[in-house]
Write a structure and sequence with these properties.
This protein is 44% helix and 15% strand. It contains eleven helices and ten strands. Strand 4, helix 4 and strand 5 (123-126) form a beta-alpha-beta unit. Bound molecules: coenzyme A and magnesium ion. The site of coenzyme A has 14 residues, from strand 1 and helix 1.
Length: 296
């Protein structure tokens, strides 16, 4: 199942790592990048590796990803430190285009061979809009198969920094147009590739109602999950990206309506026309519902 909630944990925080197993997050992102001060990177690598080694693949309550530093920074040192712990995946920040993911994939081929991990096991999730160039080259992902990449996400904070922007919001408090474009293109790119689209973080971690409304809207648009920065956000995200009881009941009725009319391409339900796209959508809703039920 694609993780719905992806909770960041600074890789050098003993206290936060100590809470990791009880958060209920589908995935944890052990961070060695921007939540760790430069002088703490080495410690973060060591602690992250120990954390992974203490939780063997197959016996993990959450999928365990590591956010490494950018490729031109210390990604190789980070990978050398954490790959012995066999992380489920690597999050790569501040990419420029699909070639960055291709290069990371080749690195992972080598690290997997060195560790005796089956080739292709380690997944990749790029943060694919954190540089201006990245936001303009999302189409580069459409040209080449990147089988390790099972999800993509986007970020608005670093993009604002490289743009020299003082805010990434408009006067209504929504994402400003530049960030909405990046977010929509990310969604379209991920879906064109048939992989999961993960929405960026909701910064106000005390605003549960706001988070839930925002997750429902994102799920309605087609996003499959969301970054969390605080354990208090996990439940809202997990619920926001799971089909509601009403949605599941409606999907069952759509399928029943087609079952009752064999051979029909369109039928009426509650006075409204439903056709094949509705049937496909209903099947997707039930498949997602079943995969979440199987996990929980
Ligand atoms: N993972 C695990 N535990 C966390 C956590 C996280 N991401 N964020 C907070 N906690 C723990 C705290 O340690 C605290 O524990 P305590 O009750 O034993 O003191 C408890 O949850 C409540 O935390 P709270 O006091 O509400 O927040 P805070 O002020 O300690 O921390 C942040 C706020 C934003 C600094 C913190 O949530 C954090 O580090 N988030 C991740 C940041 C990150 O990785 N960013 C990079 C990606 S953008
Ligand atoms: Mg960042």
């Amino acid at each position: 199942m694609t993780p719905r909630s992806w909770l960041f944990i600074p890789g050098d925080s003993e206290k936060k790592l100590g809470k990791a197993d009880s958060t209920g997050a589908d995935a944890l992102i052990l961070d060695i990048e921007d939540s760790v001060a430069p002088e703490r990177k080495a410690e973060a690598r060591r602690m992250t590796r120990t954390f992974l080694e203490d939780r063997a693949p197959g016996a993990r309550s959450s999928q365990l990803y590591v956010r490494v530093n950018p490729l031109e920074d210390s990604a190789l040192e980070d990978l050398a430190a954490v790959m012995p712990g066999a992380p489920d995946g690597i999050m790569i920040p501040k990419t420029y285009d699909a070639d960055c993911v291709r290069q990371l994939s080749l690195y992972l081929d080598a690290f997997e061979a060195a560790q005796g991990i089956e080739r292709g096991t380690t997944k990749i999730i790029p943060v694919a809009t954190e540089t201006a160039r990245a936001a303009l080259t999302l189409h580069s992902f459409l040209g080449q198969p990147l089988p390790r990449m099972q999800a993509m996400t986007w970020g608005a904070e670093d993009l604002a920094t490289v743009l020299g922007a003082s805010t990434n919001r408009d006067e209504t408090g929504q994402w400003a147009l530049t960030y909405r474009i990046a977010r929509s293109n990310l969604l379209l790119t991920a879906k064109a590739l048939g992989i999961a689209a993960i929405d960026t973080l909701y910064v106000d971690f005390k605003d549960d109602a706001g988070l839930r409304a925002s997750c429902q809207a994102a799920a309605g648009e087609g996003f499959d999950g969301r970054i969390a920065i605080h354990p208090a956000q996990v439940a809202g995200i997990n619920e926001g990206f799971a089909p509601s009881e009403d949605a599941v009941a409606h999907a069952r009725r759509v399928i029943a309506a087609f079952d009752a009319n064999p051979g029909a391409g369109t039928v009426g339900l509650d006075g409204k026309m439903i056709d094949i796209p509705h049937l496909k959508q209903a099947r997707q809703v039930l498949a997602l519902h079943d995969s979440i039920a199987a996990r929980d």
